[in-house]
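User: I would dearly like some help making sense of a protein record. This is the protein in question:
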Amino acid sequence: MKNEITFINKFKFPEVTTSMLIGAFSDYVDIRGKINSLSKKGLIIPIKQGVYLISGELGLRPYSKEVLANLIYGPSYISLETALSNYGFIPEKVTTTTSISFGRGKSFTTSVGEFKYHHIKKSIYPIGVKLKEVFKDSYCQYASPEKAILDFIHIKETKGEFKNQKDYFNYILDSYRLDLTAIEREISSKKLHSFAEYYPFKHVQWFSNELIMRLIK
């Protein structure tokens, strides 16, 4: 047990994959057996096939659902409600960790929470995605403020019966209680305009155009 803990303590972060563990225990003949043994002893906690958390009792930093989300299904980046809530754009506290992928949409129920992934076209996927430092030297793929709000409108809404962009914008504003003060603080109208060009959808264009008009007043 002591030797196993010594090996595990080589990791800087609690979020690990099977390949990381295989690398740490490369000297063992039965590596898969060793991983199963670590799990049974509670030293690592299975989250999803191929993804684990190192036990918090071993003194590593707290785990990050955002880092886990990138590992559970990918390529993916944090966006939609999780990002909007973290940026302060919506008032609700979000419990499901929401991400975007150019793969099929999927949902995972794990021992540490729900993880949901929405599909987006591969041509749109990389626009406005950045590395976010969630802890010192620990990063995850994350939507910029502009990207997150465009993703949200694109995936969650449609043009519906609205005849003009102002009415549509006000509907979105009221429906989701968007905080324009926070949006004005975080969003660049120049980046929003640039990113929106990659979303060839009427309702996204309406929303972004109206928001830009309000940002540059």
